[in-house]
Amino acid sequence: MEEKKAYILKHLSELYLKYGIKSITMDDVAAEFGISKKTVYQYFKGKEDLVNQVMEHVVKTCAFNLNDKELGNVIDRHFALRDHLLNVMKYINNNIEYDLKKLYPRLYKRFHDDKRNRIYTSTLENITEGIQEGWYRPGLDAEIVAKLQLGKMFYVFNPEYEIFSEQDMMNIEVFDKVTELFMYSVCTEKGLKYYTEQLNKIKNDIKN
Q: How much of the chain exceeds pLDDT 70, in percent?
């Protein structure tokens, strides 16, 4: 039973990311997996429980650890995040958070708060480590910079504010510009030189 449930969660996560939450009903779930609605309710208490568990699976799948030292130094990890987003953008629907907020506000608040805390904590650790290793400027107030970066990411990439069109938000160049502004504001000469070199390598790879 658990194996079947894991299979359902995995594939429902893909459907939610592609089409959003609103458009998928319990009837759709039953039809998609060739089971009855009664069987669906053996795995989930109802639509809200299903959405909750699918979103937990989505978070595990899409979350990125900015402080995974196996990905390189603090600047390398921003480029690794870029690669991660390029992969996620292939199948994500920006309406998923909007649907969650509108249809399940309690769940939205919990996932939103968790996302905010996770991004803030990882950004703060990245900045602190970068200062210690000489990639970022000494004297930076790491907490304030992390909060500014968090606010920038949440505001710019929130479709409700309509800063960019949905099509623009799925363009990696927007993320690149946000990252560039961050790097130019925090990097030492050493850090900026390294960031520029890595960015130029990516641009050259794209051209070739």
A: 98
Spell 80-98 as b/e; 16+ CB within 10 A means b: bbeebbeeeeeebbebbbb
Residue 59 covered by a domain: no
Please state the φ and ψ torsions of residue 44, each to the nearest 5 degrees: -135, 140
Based on the domain organization, do 132 and 81 belong to the same domain?
yes
pLDDT one-digit tens code per residue, 167-197: 787 889 999 999 999 999 999 999 999 999 9
At residue 93, does pLDDT exceed 80?
no
Residue 144 C-beta-side C-alpha neighbours within 13 Å: 5
Evaluate whether residue 97 is within a structural domain. Answer: no
- Structural domain that includes position 16: 2-54
> Residue-wise over 157-172: b if at least 16 C-beta within 10 A, else e?
beeeeeeeeeeebbee
CB atoms within 10 A of CB 175: 20
pTM, full prediction: 0.87
86 and 187 co-located in one domain: yes
Exposure letters 138-150 (e unless 16+ CB within 10 A, then b): eebebeebbeebb
Q: Are residues 49 and 70 in the same domain?
A: no
Q: Is residue 60 part of a domain?
A: no
Contact by Cβ (8 Å): 29, 4 = no
Residues 30 and 77 in one domain: no
